[in-house]
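Tokens as discussed.
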């Protein structure tokens, strides 16, 4: 049952994103999205989240202003706890609702750019983390 649900979710996101061919095995995104996402990430996200999506050193410790530093997005933090829609919402609306400082990118990045950024950092997740994300909430 789970495998059918996961496969349906992967196919649904692929259809919604317009990328039905060439998806990375077991994932919702394509290699082209990863490559585009790398550029989007480097230009918009890496200055805070790091070039390899590794996040800040003490990302779990509040700053003096009460906000949190940028977390890792490479699978070593908590990004995998969040469903796809929440990841998209955080990119679009920024991190303030979650206690962070991340600016909103909804007016800066297209939906395709936002999806590509997610594809890039999720490509850094090992199979165990990606599968846990899919089982937990994923798509």
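Sequence:
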């Amino acid at each position: 049952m789970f495998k059918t649900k996961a496969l349906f979710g992967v196919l649904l996101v692929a259809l919604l994103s317009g990328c039905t061919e060439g998806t990375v095995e077991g994932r919702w995104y394509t290699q082209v999205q990863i490559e585009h996402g790398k550029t989007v990430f480097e230009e918009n996200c890496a200055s805070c989240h790091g070039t390899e999506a590794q996040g800040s050193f003490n990302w779990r410790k509040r700053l003096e202003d009460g906000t949190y530093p940028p977390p890792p997005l490479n699978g070593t933090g908590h990004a995998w706890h969040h469903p796809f829609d929440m990841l998209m919402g955080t990119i679009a609306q920024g991190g303030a609702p979650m206690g962070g400082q991340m600016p909103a990118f909804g007016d800066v990045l297209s939906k395709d750019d936002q999806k590509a950024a997610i594809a890039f950092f999720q490509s850094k997740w090992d199979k165990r983390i990606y599968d846990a994300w899919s089982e937990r909430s994923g798509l």
